[in-house]
Amino acid sequence: MSDGGHGDEKGQRFRRVRAAAPAPHAATGRSRLGKFIHDFDGPRSAYHFLWAWAGAAVHRHPSRKLFVIGVTGTKGKTSTLELLNAILERANKRTALISSLRVKVADESVKNRTGNSMPGRAYLQRFLRAARRAGCDYALVEVTSQAVVQHRHRFIDWNMGAITNLAPEHIEAHGSFENYREAKLDFLKYVLARGGKAFLNRDDKNFTFFFDALGDYGPVTYSKDDEFFHDALPHILSTRMRREGAAPHFLMSPFNEENVAAAVAIAKELGIDNRAIDDAILDFEGVPGRMEYVHAGRFTAVVDYAHTPDSLEAAYRAAQPKPSPQFPHPRLICVLGAAGGGRDAWKRPAMGAIARDYCDEIILTNEDPYDERPETIIEEVAQGIVAAGPPRAGQHMQKIVDRTAAIERAVALANEGDVVIGTGKGSEEWIHGAKGSKVPWDERAAFEAALQKKAAPVREQGAAGTEE
């Protein structure tokens, strides 16, 4: 697929190669009208639809002169987009990117402080217009299910759409897992309806559902068992280990392999050469707040955004310290909370049960309580731990509402060789409380401070020993 210059010529070169089969919802005028009417389940739906239409009209449909790629899924969206962005930049492409983490247009990047991964009220169209004016070749967009329900994906000329994976999430917001899954499918159908390409993950347990729905339209499928992982990845990993030691900044594990597979599949479909792909992954340092390692002296912590049962289990598996002759029995110590405000309360005991299975020391704490009592949320997570069975040998649970104190306690419990992991906050800047209140928060800084305090006596003892 070509990706030439700018302006009108670029707009022509970036038009999609249309699928052989007719695109979904693209049949007769009557079917279009039926689909249009079906989309409006009330005034609120119409309100969001009109904002999407107005934004595109006012900003003169900027996506028509960009190559727009959307990534959706339960987890891995941000990491996949950052990986793809790194690959495209290594191939000397000019990119724009919007995700839960940041908003980037060409060389300028700021944190996303809108409170939404995929903001509404014409924000996306302003972003796309800025990308076009900056001469960007590609616009990379994180696509959420709630934004799809609110029509924020509409009136954008999507060239590609990918789904990373699917697990139960936002059940209260959508009414059921089936509705949540349907929102993801609606986005991919919308991409195909505009002649774009859809990418499906063969490793995801919902792959069959999506392939059955979209298989006639020739979706591209990808897997962590693809050729790249057998040929190129082992060399990349060995080079990273030699360069960065045993704990590279970007942890290449099954936790991230599916994200790599998605980014590589899209890059290869775009015709990006293998050298650019390999070099980008070799130098990639990861995403703030996503399996982000923090070190002080000989002590290690991990900061991660995991906030669903599936992502929590994947994070614990990835962070699990491996025994060595020096540290034959390393422990995993977790700082765990759950969000309040009616946000998927069903998952609280499930996450507690996962912590019971993987962690040797469990510190339950506050996350984002919103209008609920933090103590109530903590107790529901604790009930999941208790229901999962008796404590494993040497396993302990504590409840500390103050998150800073919980992190300090977890780090204080750590011995050399252990790993402490905090989940749920990642790179978020606030802890959300009642009536819209917010308390500034920096998870990495909290761990750094606790680790520095922990490592200081060790360094002092070492220095004293040297003087003697």
What's the pLDDT, averaged over the residues?
Answer: 86
Estimate percent helicity: 40-55%
Sheet with the most strands, sense and barrel status: 8 strands, mixed
Strand content: 15-25%
Structural class: alpha/beta
CATH fold group of the largest domain? UDP-N-acetylmuramoyl-L-alanine:D-glutamate ligase
Tell me which CATH architecture of the largest domain applies here: 3-Layer(aba) Sandwich
**Uncertain segments:** 1-23, 25-30, 463-468
What are the main properties of this structure?
468 residues; single chain; Protein-Tyrosine Phosphatase, Chain A; 8-stranded mixed beta sheet; UDP-N-acetylmuramoyl-L-alanine:D-glutamate ligase; 18 helices; 6-stranded mixed beta sheet; alpha/beta
